[in-house]
Amino acid sequence: METTTDVIVKLVESLKRYLGYQKKYITLDLTEKLTLLLTALIIGAVIFVIGIIAVIFIALTIAAAIKAWSGSACLAYGIIAAFFILTCVVIFLMRKPWIVDPLTRLFSNILMDQQEADDNEEDF
What is the CA angle 79-98-61, rounded to 5? Predict the structure, then answer.
């Protein structure tokens, strides 16, 4: 028959083993989430750079077409600049639904477990 001391020693050993497993689980979970987050950020940055390059070439092409149509390079580049300014104003005004909300959802889905996210949505 086991004495109380033996039971307590086994309980302490089990608790130490459990805490070690929890530490490993938290480390692996954090590594997974950081990997997903970093991957999303790198893909976003690459797509952003490629998109900017494409927009520059498209703008230069449209400016050349407007120059051929109107005969004035100043007018062509002015129209393109006005379009970009208008685009920036629209993006600034719509930043919450177009940028902030999707990024918040993306980061919360990456950083929180799906079950936790579902539980938090049910609270509201």
Answer: 30
Has residue 124 been placed in a domain?
no
Rounded Cα–Cα distance for residues 93 and 87 (Å): 10
Residues of the domain holding 108: 4-119
Residues 6+ apart with CB under 8 A from 99: 91
85-100 pLDDT, tens per residue? Answer: 999 999 999 999 999 9
Q: How many domains does the chain have?
A: 1
Query: Does 80 score more than 80 pLDDT?
Result: yes
| 112 contacts 120 by C-beta, under 8 angstroms | yes
The arithmetic mean of pLDDT across residues 74-82, rounded, is 96
Residue 13 lies in a domain: yes
Closest to 64 measured CA to CA, from 53, 80, 44 = 80
Q: Which residue has the tokens 């393109």?
A: 80
d(CA 71, CA 21): 73
Q: Is residue 52 part of a domain?
A: yes
